[in-house]
Amino acid sequence: MLELNRYLGAPIHRSDGQLWGKVEDVVVTGVSHPIVHALIGRADHRLWLITWDQVERFERTSIVISTSVEPIALEARPLEELQQAQFLLKRDVLDTQIIDVAGTRVARVSDVLLDHAHAGQLEVVGVDVGVASVLARLGLHRLGRKVPQKVVRWSDIHLTSDRGHELQLADENALVHTLNAAALKHLLAVVPAPDARQILDHLDDQTTQAVLADPTLARRLVLGSRRRFTRLQPWHRP
Domain 2-87: which topology? Predict the structure, then answer.
């Protein structure tokens, strides 16, 4: 199991041993089963994109890219222009709140967990929501080792970051589209109200009726929206 925090800020060398820069973020593709697509590196006070096939070694003690690699300057390819299904692990997941649907709780992500997949790929498999990773980031490694991780499987979470929420709504295989009415009620009760209304808009009529049968949710999702809409309407003198 690989922990994202161990790699953020880690040095990147070329295969000839020359120091190139350091890891700034990790780009993944697919919100249901995220696969590492590229690294974002920082060198010469600029951000660069290094695609995964240009990475020769990705280990705790060594991150190596080929001497022939020519990273893409992100000024030429801004983050907003990355592929539609891509997001960033540091920007969009780490230190954000997630909904643990299986454990019916809201938690803050202290680390992102990856594992080796087929054909040399890396896949995101879960997140740590415990304090062990926080202590390690503060340099308290010895104390952190005494505290067990609190791991939530990736398949059990709903992201609340803007990018994560957007991608999950757009992906038919994402968790939010597979929940039964009872699980949806819990999710809609804890996500921010604007996000909850967006989720409601993506449900079929039968599921929507089952969810809105809960009077508390109905007030939050429908009546609250109507009141806000009413306040925004211009007032006309009769």
Answer: SH3 type barrels. (2.30.30)
Q: What is the side-by-side order of every strand in the sheet holding 97-100?
A: 105-108, 97-100, 157-159
Domain ranges of the chain: 2-87, 179-230
State in Å, rounded, how far the first CA of the chain is from the last one.
68
Question: Mean pLDDT in the chain?
Answer: 85
DSSP-assigned letters across all residues of 36-58: EEEEEEEETTEEEEEEGGGEEEE
Contacts of 87 (CB under 8 A, 6+ apart): 27, 28, 31, 34, 93, 163, 164, 167
What lies within 8 Å, CB to CB, of 66 at 6+ separation is 14, 15, 54, 56
The whole-model pTM stands at 0.85
Residue 220 confidence (pLDDT) above 70: yes
CB 125 within 8 A of CB 15: no
- Strand, coil or helix: what is 179? coil
| 235 CA to centre of own chain | 42
126-172 pLDDT per residue, tens: 999 987 676 666 665 666 566 677 899 999 999 999 999 999 999 99
Whether the per-residue pLDDT at 14 is higher than 90: the answer is: yes
What type of residue sits at position 132?
A
d(CA 131, CA 141): 11
For 160, residues 6+ apart whose C-beta sits below 8 A from its C-beta are: 96, 97, 98, 99, 191, 192, 195
